[in-house]
Amino acid sequence: MMNYKEILSNTPIESQDYPFNSIEFFDETEVKDKMYVDKSKLKSNAEDRLEEAVDSYLGAHPDIKKAVAYREETPDKRFAFREFGRN
């Protein structure tokens, strides 16, 4: 199984320009963590790799209930494109 640290970072990836993807992790009520997706580690099966990384994160953090992936266009403009939950 993939370790989420292979493609997720807790700091922005300096070599990436906008747009980039981030994921926010929530407990039952609020955001607990935000990770940044290293696009250079994603291949043609990006959706599967992203899902594997989120599953790995959820497995390592039992207090987290769901995750939401965002596409960040600018510092002030972003939109959610996928929500993940526990199986």
Instruction: Identify the overall geometry.
Output: globular
Measured between the Cα atoms of the first and last residue, the distance is 16 Å
Largest sheet: 5 strands, antiparallel
What string, H for helix and E for strand, traces the elements in order? EEEHEE
Provide the gyration radius in Å.
12 Å
In DSSP terms, counting alpha (H) and pi (I) runs of 4 or more, how many helices? 1
Note the beta-strand portion: 35-45%
Helix content: 10-25%
Give the low-pLDDT segments: none
Look at the structure and give the mean pLDDT. Answer: 85
Q: Supply the helix-strand structural class.
A: alpha+beta
Write out the strand line-up for the largest beta sheet, numbering strands in chain order.
1-3-2-4-5
Number of strands: 5
- Multimeric state: single chain
Short description:
This protein has 87 residues and is of the alpha+beta class. It contains 1 helix and 5 strands; from the N terminus they run βββαββ.
Describe the structure.
There is one protein chain. The chain has 87 residues and is of the alpha+beta class. It is built from 1 helix and 5 strands. The chain has a 5-stranded antiparallel sheet with strand order 1-3-2-4-5. Strand 4 (66-74) and strand 5 form a beta hairpin.
Topology:
Layout: E1 8-9, E2 20-26, E3 31-37, H1 46-60, E4 66-74, E5 77-85
Antiparallel strand pairs: 1-3, 2-3, 2-4, 4-5
